[in-house]
Write a structure and sequence with these properties.
Blueprint (H helix, E strand, L loop, with lengths): L14 H22 L3 H28 L5 H22 L5 H22 L1 H9 L7
The protein binds fe (ii) ion (FE2) (2 copies).
């Protein structure tokens, strides 16, 4: 199985957030398959799209956290900012690369920052949402 495949454990139970997370992984998979085909020039716009979509996702998520009264909404927002800074700087490096292995390594590094939100960062507010009765416990 591919490391960018959706896993049940990623599911938060907030449909809008889960849909965003699925879309993020889908964009990464698209970039990965273009890179496999050596189509680096086509990857560039998708790398930008991935950042733009992440910006939009983080904003939606931050708004939701404020709405439900999550006490660490500010901390999570700062965390998003750090992920974006790192992903953006690695993206600029990836765009210059023209060898498949190096490009894929570079993308893996960039994707890692964004996947961190899905597999680690957002788990921090899952129990808060459960305790508030906003999502069902599994
Ligand atoms: Fe998220
Ligand atoms: Fe997040």
């Amino acid at each position: 199985m591919d490391k960018l495949d959706w896993l049940e454990t990623f599911e938060l139970g907030v449909p809008e957030v889960d849909a965003d997370h699925r879309e993020l992984l889908a964009i990464m998979k698209k970039i990965e398959s273009l890179a496999d085909a050596g189509a680096f020039d086509d990857c560039g716009p998708l790398l930008d799209e991935l950042i733009d979509f992440s910006v939009a996702h983080f904003a939606r998520e931050e708004e939701m956290l404020v709405e439900v009264g999550y006490p660490n909404a500010d901390i999570h927002k700062e965390y998003h900012g750090r992920l974006l800074d790192r992903a953006r700087s690695v993206k600029d490096i990836c765009k210059e690369i023209r060898s498949k292995d190096n490009f894929k390594d570079c993308c893996d590094e960039m994707f890692g920052f964004l996947v961190d939100d899905i597999v680690t960062g957002d788990l921090k507010f899952k129990s808060f949402l459960e305790n508030k009765g906003l999502i069902k416990r599994p």
